[in-house]
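[audit] Reproducing an earlier prediction to check determinism. Same input, same settings, fresh worker. If the tokens differ from the archived copy the diff job will pick it up downstream; this log only records the rerun itself.
[audit] input (71 residues):
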Amino acid sequence: RQEWVVFDTGSEEDSSMARTTGLVTVAFVEEMLAGSIPEGVHAPETLEVEGMLRRICERMSREGVMIRGSF
């Protein structure tokens, strides 16, 4: 069993909900544009791309979203 904690208080411009859902979507699209995700329709929980989860979490962390979990 894996357990993750994602915490964000938002910013002056954006709500926490917008940041946590929007940033993960942007990071995923960046992965797609970089060519690391194969074409097709994928359930996120079954998509295994080497290092992708870490890169997405790091992207969100750079924007101030706190993420705790294990890779």
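[audit] rerun output stored. Observation attached for the diff report: The radius of gyration is 13 Å.
[audit] end
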